[in-house]
Fold 3-oxoacyl-[acyl-carrier-protein] reductase.
Amino acid sequence: MPHDHTPRTVLVTGATRGIGRAIAERFVALGDRVATLSRGTEVPDGVLAVPGDVTSTEAVDAGFTAIENELGPVEVLVANAGITRDGLLMRMSDADFDDVIDVNLAGAFRCARRASKGMIRLRRGRIVLISSVVGLYGGAGQVNYSASKAGLVGMARSITRELGGRGITANVVAPGFIQTAMTDALATDQQEKYLGAIPAGRFAQPDEVAGVVEFLAGPDAGYISGAVIPVDGGLGMGH
Ligand code: NDP
C-alpha cells in the first residue's frame, strides 16, 4: 500500500471476471476496502462479495446497505456490470434491447443513485462508469449496446452538474477491445477486423483499464469530471 494512502470503501459491480475483476484487484492492492455486487460469487481474494443483480432496485439498495454495514460508506463506485445481446437492428427483439439497457444503463443509474446518498453525506465521492468505444463509435449489430453505453456519457455529465459542487466527480471510461469472456465470444473474423482498425495493433488486457480507473478514483483526478477517457489503442481517436 502507498504509505500516504487512506483506505476507501470501493464498490465495483460485476467483479467476478474480466475488467471488473481486474479493477477490484487493483483497489485491493492499494489497500482499499473493496466490495462487489454481482450475480456470481467467484471474486478475487480480499473482495467482499454481495450477491445482487443490478436490474433490481431492491437488490442494489440492499447490497449497498450490506456493504456499508460491513465496510463503511461507499466512496468510490465503479459501475462495470454489463452484457451484450448483439443482433442486427431489423431482427433485434424488444427483450434484447430492453435487457441490455436494463443492465448497462439503468443498472449504473440504480447504483449511482444509491451511492450518491452516502457520497453527499461524506462530501466526497468518485463515480466511474464503464462505457465502451462502441458508445460513441457505433457498432454494427450493437444498437442496444451502443445506445446503453452512449447513455452513460449523458449520465456522468448530468451527475457532474448536479453533484460537482459537493466534492463528487463522475467520469466515463471507454474501453476498446479488451481480452475478456465478452470479447472471446466474438467470431474470429470479427476479432481480426477490429485488430486491423486499432492503431496500437493489439488488444488490451483488463488491467490496462484498471489503471485508468485507479487514476480517476485517486487524488490527482479531483478536478476531472464529466470526461470520457478512452482506453482503446486509438480506435476512437479520442472521440
Ligand atoms: P464480462 O462478461 O467478462 O463480465 C461482466 C461482469 O458483469 C461479470 O462480473 C458479471 O457477473 C457482471 N454482470 C452481468 N450482468 C449483471 C447483472 N445483471 N447484475 C450484476 N452483475 C452483472 O465482461 P467484461 O469484463 O468484458 O466487461 C466489463 C464491462 O466493460 C462491461 O460493462 C462491458 O460492456 C465493458 N466493456 C468491455 C469491453 C471488452 O472488450 N471486454 C470493451 C468495452 C467495454 P455475473 O455474471 O456473475 O453477474
Q: What stands out?
A: The first strand starts at residue 9 and ends at 13. The two ends are 35 Å apart (CA to CA). The chain has one domain: 9-230. Residues 10 and 34 are 5 Å apart (CA to CA).
